[in-house]
Amino acid sequence: MTIAETADPDDVVQTLYLSLLGRAADPAGLDFLTQLVNFEDPAAVAALGDIFIASSEFQNSFAAGSSENFVRSVYFNLFDRNAGTDEVEAWTDRLDAQGLDRADLPAAVLEAARESDLEAYEAKLFIADYVTDQTERGGYLPDALTFPALRSNDELYADLNRLDAEYDTLSLEVVGASLDARPLYAATVGTGEASLLFITQQHGDEPIGTEAAMYFLDFLAGDSELARSLRDEVTVTVVPRVNPDGFARWEREVGGERGLVDPRLNNNEIDLNRTYDPAAPFTADVAPESVAVRELLARLDPDFVFDYHGQGNYRDAEGELDTMSVLWPTNTGVDPAIVDASKRAVAAIAASLEDYDYDQLTLYPGAETASIARNGFSLAGTPGVLVEQRFGQEMTELARGLDVDYSALISALALEGFITMQGLVEAAADGSIETLDPALAEQIPERSPSVRYADLYSDDSYGAEELLIA
Ligand SMILES: [Zn+2]
Questions:
Q1: What is the pTM of this model?
Q2: Do 289 and 333 share a domain, yes or no?
Q3: Ligand 1 centroid from CA 207, angstroms
């Protein structure tokens, strides 16, 4: 979808806000402009761009300078990456020598964009739409539309401690340590009777849920009316990044090191998501991360536990990628009442994403294995739910040395994860998590067929050949 192809006036106006002003549309501006223009008429749409160019907000910006600066600004605003020298030169020439109007540059750049840029654009459009929407509703607004990179372990710990210092409503404790002696934190917000536990990144190279959780803690501990009312009803504990050692290994791979233990595993090469069979618990010398989670779960005895992971790319017949897959416990030994509770939570996740076109929610085709978290936790008496978000293949390619800026995609996926966390807490607060029909969960479609990374971005300038390195 590009601005030239889209018939949706909201998308056209939002794209102009994004590309020319570098921000999400304010609700009043969006309403005014979508009603002002006849979107069937290309000349009228082009004139709409002129309104932005003439605005004082644009005229006072970096983008109003030289053509080079304007091109750089449009690229960054649309795709969240720096334009290449050749791109800056080519578009500057179109503007200065060939008479391309500045107001028409965003559409022209989108028209010529490669696959990964279009994906970044769709991600940014989703974030901008979310921000416009929440501005109207008084909901949570992230500090910036996108964040530049995944948090390192040290940055994660610093950010958790900053939240702890900033908010009286959040308490932070160390609940264990990894094999490499990195702390495992649990952050708790709220004093309500309903109680939810979120854990993220048991697999070190599946970091999106951690980023989502950091948005979520910032929201839930904050002073919005919504957050205050949720805190009265629900107590939420989050353990972000259960496998920091694995993530550190992934970062070393990005830096060029080879021959390390798979970042998915802990330092003893244990898959932490195969350690939760209550009949065969792992010991702290083998998997201290797992012991920390299990002890916390036993101490808190929450109503639900949600386990956030990452998966690869799956694409349906229409060419849409699955963004998230979910599943309840499927081990036959789990009490049917617990299975139903987990399915109700899955239904709450589906409901939370209903307003967002960006999302494609499917069912994860998971095994019965008792040692998998959603099964093991449920066998031990707490309804468990698996949440998987895409970005697994991208993480693998980045570890192999691929040099692509995925900050827009990471930010959009983190926001998607955040929306599900907020939706679950709202459903726990208003009691709907107890009353939703479990059968709704079964209506979520099966996961789409897997698609090779190289097939996703075959037209990209960094070349499909490179992406096939095994
Ligand atoms: Zn995983």
A1: 0.95
A2: yes
A3: 9
